[in-house]
Amino acid sequence: MKLAAASSNEIQMTVRQNPATISEINQKQPSELYGTTFTCDARILYMIPTVDWYRNACPLCSHEIFPYGENWLCPTDGEFDHAKCMYQISAMIQDNTGELQVTINHEPATSMIGIQCSDLRIIASDHAIPPHILSLKGSSMTFHIEALREGRANRLRAAVKKVSDTNRHTSPTNTTIPSATRTTPAPTTLGTTQTHRMTAKRLEFPTQDTQTGGSKRPKTKE
Q1: What is the number of domains present in the chain?
Q2: Per-residue pLDDT at 202
Q3: CATH number, domain at 121?
Q4: Does 216 map to a domain?
Q5: Enclosing H/E stretch for 166
Q6: What Cα–Cα distance (Å) separates residue 43 from each residue in 63, 102, 109, 143?
Q7: Of the candidates 71, 38, 46, the residue with the CA atom closest to the CA atom of residue 56
Q8: pLDDT bracket for residue 153 (50, 70, 90)
Q9: What is the pLDDT of residue 4?
Q10: How do residues 123-139 score in pLDDT, each as one tens digit?
Q11: CB-based burial of residue 171 (10 Å sphere; 0-12 exposed, 13-18 middle, 19+ buried)?
């Protein structure tokens, strides 16, 4: 199957008529997939525990944000007094033709879990994957996946931008959020060496999330 790579409307039309199987995706070269959006009917096989289920992001641009003294620093938008908590769930999905590792972005993850990332972070145990996310295992749905280029090695990252036709077979045993003050993890002091490394770190792809950020402060500290 040849995936469309022209306009977004043409891609969406092709996707609706010719959904891709995981085997068809895996058989293609990354260069054939970059920038392409496709759909795949599959189920979540398991969550990948070696990757954090959330990330700290800039309240304005959603790029990666870094500890900066008692605050947070975005290379693009400057200094903030807090970071925005966003889902980035790494999972293995499976259909009857094969398996594919995907990253479930913030918006589809929120719709699947039914809890805001900042709320779940409050009741979660450090970076361990919470039961609310683990309960997604075995869920069948249509994944709307965008093939993105990642890193200098031009690796392929399959980013889930949307999910539909969800069929949740289980639900979390407890989705009550306790009364607590929402906080983001306290940043550590950023030394000279950390400052040098910060500018070289890769930024995450921005999402369409529109959560309201905090007050913006001057962009740099002398």
Answers
A1: 1
A2: 42
A3: 2.40.50.140
A4: no
A5: strand 155-167
A6: 29, 12, 14, 9
A7: 71
A8: low
A9: 42
A10: 887 668 999 999 999 99
A11: exposed
